[in-house]
Protein: MBL fold metallo-hydrolase
Organism: Phragmitibacter flavus
Amino acid sequence: MNTPFDDHISTDTAELYWNDKPSSDGKDPVRIHLLWGDGVKILEPGVDRTKVRSRGRDRVGWVKNESLGGKSLMEFYYIDVGQGDGLLIKTPDFQHILIDGGWPRTSQDAGKNAADFVDWKFFHDYAVDQIELEAMICSHNDQDHYGGLWDLLNPEQVEDLDTKGVRVKNFYHAGLGWWKKGSKKWLGEYHPKTGETFFTPLMGDRNAIIAALGNNEPRLAGEWAQFFQRVVESKWKNNQPTTIQRLSHVDETN
């Protein structure tokens, strides 16, 4: 995604003033305080202050020119999802990585999870209409980690989002999954290797996931299968299918 900002704050803090200069009685009301690295959209350059929009679709004000000229920073947002994890990373070149998302909304006391934070971040804070994630990472197959990711990809949840859509370039998973065994689900068989025991089978790339969603054994089970159905339906720019890969310390190309 191209950055929606023209400039960034270069000082530790910067006032976003209501006016382009103090009033005749010396009053100079401040709307909010901006922080080092905050992005701004330039609306009207001025001699001493520049009119900008920052940290909100309708949050417009004037900032001192000496506070501009900064750089985009690496940012980490640890999302309160109750039990589980949720982390959004913004890189200096405005790429975004989402790691886990907490329980689904239906299991959250507040009815909110990482999907809602990411939606707020893009629509309200960045003032853009489309969520674009360079990478979505599901650390493992517990629902308090993948539930919020599922909500973000689920078209049935679209009414709960302000953005118009979600694009995901790459999806990464850990390989371990829930497999169907009769009327139950399980993690698969153990197999020994080099003196240790490992779960198999492991989930793989897009084609392997599509096969595991079919009618042949082994196949994915329950809500885990429903989640991955949304993953394989997800798209990137120009309607390109999202790349799906298993995270591994082994180079599987050799």
Notes: Residues 114-125 form the longest helix (12 residues). Residues 75-246 form one domain. Residues 189 and 200 are 5 Å apart (CA to CA).
